[in-house]
Amino acid sequence: MPWNTAALRLCCILSTLLWSSGNAIDCELRQTCSDCITIDLTCGWCADEGVRLDSRCRLNGMHTDCGNVFAPASEIVVPQEPPPATAISPETYNVSLRNTDTLSLPIDVTTVRNIPLDLYILFDVSQSMDEEISAIQGASAEIIARLQNITDDVQVGVGSYVDKATLPFSRRNLTQESGCIKPGGPCYNFRHYGRMTNSREELSVSVH
Known about the structure:
By secondary structure, the chain is α+β, with helices and mostly antiparallel strands. Helices cover 28% and strands 22% of the residues.
């Protein structure tokens, strides 16, 4: 065996022994069960009654003269529940976590069919937004069609506003007709058109 390989193995052995020795001392210094099981995951408490020991707290696996070692382990329990109505499962966990330990909670995320979906399209109908408004008006039927590929429970609403009180964004001498969107009207905070709907025809009427 090459000398450098032997030296490396010796260093690993010495490091392990020193680590175990240090942990053993940390365990053996604990005088109560609570201190013992919270100082480190490697410590365990001898719960035998009527036994005289130098230390009841020792490294796990070192209680050769003890028949009842208390070294609780962390655990995850998933309660038995009906299938969840949400896209995330499980919805609850019962976790027992020992001090200084860590646990990973597995979560499944799935696509739930026919979840309620509301989309509200709010137009800025300033004169400068004329091209964008025309593009959405032309795609109004496709918007609902695409959403209905995701869920059958879809509602779409339409509203508008103008907040630029200057030319060429708004023209105060032009009134906006009720029930349709016309760029370039006077300023206003908000107007709603039609109703929330899943009808392509109704949405098309609202945005034109």
